Amino acid sequence: MCDMIDSQSAEKISRMKKLRRTLSESFGRIALKKEESSFDEICVTKMSTRNCQGMDSVIKPLDTIPEDKKVRVQRTQSSFDPFEKPTNQVKRVHSENNACINFKTSSAGKESPKVRRHSSPSSPTSPKFGKADSYEKLEKLGEGSYATVYKGKSKVNGKLVALKVIRLQEEEGTPFTAIREASLLKGLKHANIVLLHDIIHTKETLTLVFEYVHTDLCQYMDKHPGGLHPENVKLFLFQLLRGLSYIHQRYILHRDLKPQNLLISDTGELKLADFGLARAKSVPSHTYSNEVVTLWYRPPDVLLGSTEYSTCLDMWGVGCIFVEMIQGVAAFPGMKDIQDQLERIFLVLGTPNEDTWPGVHSLPHFKPERKTVVSEKNLRQAWNKLSHVNHAEDLASKLLQCFPKNRLSAQAALSHEYFSDLPPRLWELTDMSSIFTVPNVRLQPETGESMRAFGKNNSYGKGVSNSKH
User: Fold this and answer.
1) 97 exposure class (CB count in 10 Å sphere: 0-12, 13-18, 19+)
2) What number of H helices and E strands is found in the chain?
3) Residue 313: left if φ>0, alpha if ψ -120 to 50, beta else—which one?
């Protein structure tokens, strides 16, 4: 009797286990089907939102991020270090763009009207862009140690472009300066920063496609020797500070400010260019190379071997360029080496000491045994034309400070009295708005002095904004 009961119990337990297993499998299939459906819906939503924009896609707009997290997100976006695996970085950009293009091609027949409406012929990731045969080379503009710059024309919309063709070496990979420039510029959208339209990556070359700007400040000053029109100097300087303020707020240093790297359009717009030496400045401070900035525009702290610097590095260059535009000659045209450059600076600004520049004695290249100690002089004694323009000498003196922490920031410089006679609307413009959209803001005709008063050319010649130094 007991055996019969045990047998029935075992059979009942077996049936219950089998039923549980069947139910479990059924629920599992239902859950899996639901997950697959949700995944498909998410994919479609993301692809529609991304609109095939590769690395530039943002699923969640910054406006929806709480205020206390916005700064942290923006810093993360702008503090990408191009030194980390540079070749892989370019490959990743290229592969993501290709994947996006392939998706649009393979699903052309299934593409929803919503996705099609969001696609634009002017989008860099459109199938019409991103290809070497999308652009026609017209003429060579210049050549540097790793890149050649051509004037070109888009076959898609007929607009003029500048093609910066970077030669890739199989054993060396992609130059890190090119990776820096591309990675930084793709996130910078401002009227006073050159616009990167497209990136074309092949086995032999990496081509950066920029908006075409017909000249630079160096060539402009060569054409109008003896100093520029005071009102034009003011407008050029305002635009330079405006562009620098934009990148400095995003913790980016240009690190190679000079007239050749400031492009001038036919309407007078000034645009920061050549970000090959630029760096995303992280917080807290890192140490950086002191082999930055062309010698004439290199600040004394960097000349003395300092590797700890911030946005004040760029502001010294602004002061040098400001003086050069007004006076018609370079502020500190060193002809020999770093020591000669330092001597030219100290002849005007005075020999530094621990009182005027705390910590100067600890800099690697400082030589306390200097035979001559020079006192500081008024800037108008060195550059007389500063005295002809209201508040120009005061602004120049606040930019050309030997002690880095004393230099005026770009944002503070924009509020200087020197700009007080400009229309107030200039300070209200959006990032992508040109200053020339404001009524009565325009360049004045350059009169200039005779060539005899200045010489034939600046001794440094006409550099290409894309050359390496």
Assistant:
1) buried
2) 13, 10
3) alpha
469: closest CA among 222, 183, 276, 221? 276
What are φ and ψ of residue 314, in 5° steps? -70, -30
Question: What is the residue extent of each domain of the chain?
Answer: 74-108+125-211, 215-453
User: Would you state the structure tokens that stand for residue 309, as one six-digit string?
Assistant: 């610097």
Task: Tell me if residue 279 falls in helix, strand or coil.
Answer: strand
> What's the pLDDT at 226?
94
Give 179-246 as a DSSP string.
HHHHHHHTT---TTB--EEEEEE-SSEEEEEEE---EEHHHHHHHS-S---HHHHHHHHHHHHHHHHH
| Nearest in space to 204 (alpha carbons), one of 164, 180, 169 | 169
Output the pTM of the full model: 0.68
Alpha-carbon 265 to chain mean position: 18
Q: Is 431 a catalytic residue?
A: no
| Distance (Å, whole) CA 304 – CA 290 | 9
Paired sense of beta strands 270-272 and 215-216, if any: unpaired
Mean pLDDT across the chain: 75
Q: What is the CATH number of domain 74-108+125-211?
A: 3.30.200.20
Which pair of structure tokens corresponds to residue 149?
Answer: 């710059």
Rounded Cα distance between 469 and 467, Å, is: 7
Give the per-residue pLDDT at 213. Answer: 95
| Number of CB atoms found within 10 A of residue 361's CB | 12
pLDDT at 434 over 90: yes
- What the block records as the tokens of 129 is 């862009």
Pairing outcome for strands 205-211 and 252-253: unpaired
**pLDDT tens across 321-379, in order?**
999 999 999 999 988 889 999 999 999 999 999 999 999 999 988 887 665 788 999 99
For 15-70, the three-class secondary structure string (H helix, E strand, C coil) is HHHHHHHHHHHHHHHHHHHHHHHHHHHHHHHHHHHHCCCHHHCCCCCHHHCCHHHH
| Of residues 75 and 409, more confidently modeled | 409
**Catalytic choice (256, 274, 301, 314):** 256
Q: What is the largest CA-CA distance in the chain?
A: 128
Other C-beta atoms lying within 10 Å of the C-beta of residue 195: 16
Q: Right CATH number for 215-453 from 3.90.550.10, 1.10.287.1080, 1.10.510.10, 1.10.150.120?
A: 1.10.510.10
